[in-house]
Amino acid sequence: MKDWALRRRCRRLLRELDIQPPLQVKELCEQLGRQRGRPINLAPFPLPVPGPFGLWIAAADADHIVYQQETSPFHQDHIILHEIGHILAEHRSDDHDEEFWLSMMPDLSPEAVRRALRRSSYDTAHEREAELVATLILEWAAVLNRVSPTRASNAAVQRFQSALGDRRGWL
Q: Cα angle vertex 31, ends 19, 148, to 5°?
């Protein structure tokens, strides 16, 4: 996917999900999962170093993102958003050892693990796309967190803020 198309798709998706500042990555995953009709399950795990910081596995009925638990919360958010980038760019889920996945996520059926492992691993272009999505979301969130007023909880006041307020949102 071209960078401009990925940027546009990312902006549209973030507007559709109606995620408001401050960005909560877990909330973004919940909203995205609801929109896609497939929950996104987040699983912190002490991944071996050296090795990947995060992994995405697409099971039949859900997406699972495993991320390094032995790092800062900001880095964890970036890792999760990188994996979301693979989902948004329509890549295939990671290719890793079946026994490793079965030991990490015993709730997944062996067939779900095998199905995910049949997919190919990422190339440099896929990694760049996923990193672009993570970076864009974090950059936009940083700006919006600083400039956006608190959103009112009352729907009528929200409409008023929307009509008369500055046009701020996911660029």
A: 5
